[in-house]
Amino acid sequence: MKENMEISYDYHGDIDFKEPFSSIKNEDIHFYLDVDTFVGKDTCGQNCNHCWFVNYQKVFAKSFGIHAGHDIYRKLSQQGFNIYPRYVDSFAHNGEFMDIYGPAHNREFRSGENKEETETMIKGDAWTSGKPLLQKNYTDLLDKAVRNGYGTVSITFHGIVDDVDKCLLYSHTDYPIKGVFPGEKCISVISRIQNYSNENVFNTEIRVNIGITIGTHNHSRENLIKYCQLFNKLGVETVRFNCFTDHGRRHPHLQLSQKQVRDFYENVRWIHDNLTLHFQLGVSEDFGTSGIDVLDLPAHVGWCRAGRQLFAIIPCEATITYIEGEEHERIGQIVGCVNIFEPGFGSLTRIKKTNSDEYDYRVHFDVEAIESFTQDRLSGVYKNGCFAGEILQMENYDIPLVDKHRIDVIEV
């Protein structure tokens, strides 16, 4: 067995499902705060046709407003919640988000039985398609990242490896997911970041995290091995696999079966035991629990706590509502799964402070709905640790997709 670093995992909480939701403390609840969901040339520079921000009407082209979003982030953090501001690209609008939010993280990574934070969590983690770092001002963007306390850049890699020694990929024209940042260009961005690390005036090294979306097009052991060999050669610090989800219902043929998920876990175990890895290998919770035991991860991993300890807050059109006789302005929805934005579990409201131009923000959970959904998971209505795929397949669960002919742009 090779002496590789422990496999990292997404941490969404580990409180037992039988614990009443009302007893869970704020500090044990994690929110993805969807500050801005606009895609395009000023943000990620892409139009990935499987992107959740592109496919679901709930989150398409919405924003809390860049400064209001930070106010929400700050006030909810003060209330003890774990808040992860999420925008399409950290380098969007010439890095404006980094200036405002400082060294933020878009998710939390742990490893081992003791749930130790991985190196990604030491400093801020900038999430990017890679496209902004192909611009002429990429050194200015990386300077801004370093000045704001970022130590990692995370990029999603789309491509299938042909020749590892030559760092060659199969033609991007044949890659089945359209609108994504080509893998060849991602390799160029990695080189730019590494050159910057060697030459910047801050004497700071930026870590590179690579995310790879796994579907039927690239799930074989041969492909997974080639990915690991390629990124050993390229010298990145983390490679994290996530599972393809058919957002938009346009690629059902790319979705892994449960048997293929089991095979994937077995292949990851084989790779971790038999290959020397110069990076930390990671897996996302969106693969679910089918066969995950082979990885010997902590028991909670794979059993996503979405809808109990993990939620997303997404912007919605502002409306006046009354809660316990007090007037509130409802500006956001609380949802369970942070990728398909269902089910709904409450709302975010704001209240104008007396004799002030400032607002207070309050989270209102639908405790009854949360407990009912938890019982559905415990009773086997949802069998997988990642329930998103089951919801998407339910004929009676209608999730409105984006109507490309009628687009409402909302800024709260």
How does this model look, in words?
The chain has 412 residues and is an alpha/beta fold. 25% of the residues lie in helices and 25% in strands. The protein is built from nine helices and 18 strands. The chain has an eight-stranded mixed sheet. A six-stranded mixed sheet has the order 4-2-14-15-16-17. Strand 9 and strand 10 form a beta hairpin. Helix 6 packs across helix 7. It is globular. It starts with 7 loop residues before the first strand and ends with a strand. The model has no long low-confidence stretch (mean pLDDT 94).
Derived structural class:
alpha/beta
**How do the strands of the widest beta sheet line up side by side?**
6-5-1-13-12-11-8-7
Tally of helical runs: 9
Enumerate the spans where pLDDT stays under 50 for 5 or more consecutive residues: none
Pick out its properties:
single chain, 412 residues
Describe the structure concisely for a colleague.
The chain is α/β, with parallel strands linked by helices. The chain has nine helices and 18 strands. Helix 6 crosses helix 7.
